[in-house]
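Practice record 12: protein with S-adenosylmethionine.
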Amino acid sequence: MELASSKSPKGKISPDGNILLSPAIRALFVQCIALLLSYLLYNLDKEFFAISLSPYLILVAHSLFAVLISIMLRLKWWWWLIEFIFPYAVVASLVYQLSPGYSLLIFVLMVLLFWSTYRTQVPYFPSKSSLLPCILEQMPTMPGLRFIDVGSGFGGLSLNLSRARPEQHFYGVEIAPFPWLASWIRARFSSGSAEFFLGNYLTLDFAGFDLIFAYLSPAAMPALWEKAQAEMKKGALLMSYEFPIPGIEADLQIKSSANDPVLYVWRI
Ligand SMILES: C[S@@+](CC[C@H](N)C(=O)[O-])C[C@H]1O[C@@H](n2cnc3c(N)ncnc32)[C@H](O)[C@@H]1O
């Protein structure tokens, strides 16, 4: 079976459309500036104070500069953490002389897992299993219903739903090759009947589905809503786990427990 492509123009992946403003590029910029500042510090202390700071203190200074600049650039808190840890990881790999083969392997795995996260601003993280009963409770029971998880990761959600509702059709579309391949293999060897496609959900025609589920990121929500409004059938359901659509009140908000994220539901 094939999924129809969208007839509407392909949506912008990045909300501002400018790749140079993406957090990943800004994060790289932060490291470059922090490196420059720590280099200046290293040379200044020798020139003016006739002392020499230990390279480990310079490393700590680099990390702190990187965090400070990240805060000033209003990067999200997890970038502060990444910026802080990154210089130590680089130094550790040099000190322990990690084989370049390991670094390459880790890099390739990261690329296959996170693929175009730098553009989509939607990294991989799985939804909780407590989400399943919340979706089932709201999903119409009509036979033949077509459900799709846009950004299906390793495919667990669609597979679990397909076991609970064998008379309905479950799909997943995923942009990153490694999770997509894992979901494709799981679908062949597990009892569920979901199908998984490698691709960008922005090129899909949403009109072919009765329920569209998304677990993406705040950055992706405005474009998702625009596309859902333009293409989804009247009466179809759009669900988003954890992330609301700014300025669009959900018809329903469900939480399975106090610590779980909200499942937002809109009827188109
Ligand atoms: C937060 S994970 C959610 C995984 C899964 N839906 C779940 O509930 O466990 C989001 C996934 O969306 C994928 N993704 C991001 N942008 C995408 C796009 N434009 N098209 C298809 N997949 C995308 C990411 O690669 C990532 O695997």
